[in-house]
Amino acid sequence: MIYMLDTANLKDIARCVDLYPITGVTTNPSIVAKENRPLAAILKDIKNIIGDEIMLHAQVMGKDADTIVKEAYSLKEVVGSNFVVKIPATAEGIKAMKIISKKGDLRITATAILSPQQALMAAVAGAEFLAPYVNRLDNICADGVKVVSDIVTLLQKHNLKAKVLAASFKNVQQVHDVSMTGAQSVTVAPDVFEQLILHPLTDSGVAGFVRDWEGVYGKDTTVLDVL
């Protein structure tokens, strides 16, 4: 599983990258707008935190393929290495993916995917990652996890190298269900991401270990203190 963090908040990024096996940070226009700062400054600040080993995904806003392509390469100039451009899976977006894919010098995430056929088209057009929106589908009484599962199946049946990057989660159960489909990656907001490893029995179990240990070896001692 490839874990990515869906935010542009610098404090959240710094904390989660320090603690967890984060492979990428994803942003979108709404996430960036929440920071209310110049886009280039936001992306550079994120890059300073995550370095060159972690992917940074940023999204275009153009409505036609030519503008999308220009935006994509402008974003790449700002971010530098390990940049992935996010392009919506619209007709003009697919055209832009074809153009960029032929150049072979810029990685693509197809975003705003709400159907398996959008994902399949984007994969054939050259997208490396496919980002279906799970919770948005659930909110209209569709089945977001089923859509992800269908995309995984299509990629396998057609022997395509693209990876599912499932997005739009509101709870841990959605992330778990998507993981069970065989989706290769997820991008999750910090509030949900940090809940992935929480369990009350883990907390009580660790508290019991501490109580028993300190009863013999003393308060706040570690293994290093008693070896």
UniProtKB/TrEMBL annotation:
It is an enzyme of class 2 (transferase). The keyword Lipid biosynthesis does not apply. It is found in: Cytoplasm. It holds the Pfam family TAL_FSA. Its main location: cytoplasm. Its EC number is 2.2.1.2. GO terms for molecular function: fructose 6-phosphate aldolase activity; transaldolase activity. It catalyses: beta-D-fructose 6-phosphate = dihydroxyacetone + D-glyceraldehyde 3-phosphate. GO terms for biological process: carbohydrate metabolic process; ketone catabolic process. CDD domains: Transaldolase_FSA (cd00956). Belongs to the transaldolase family. Type 3A subfamily. This is Transaldolase. One of its GO terms (cellular component) is cytoplasm.
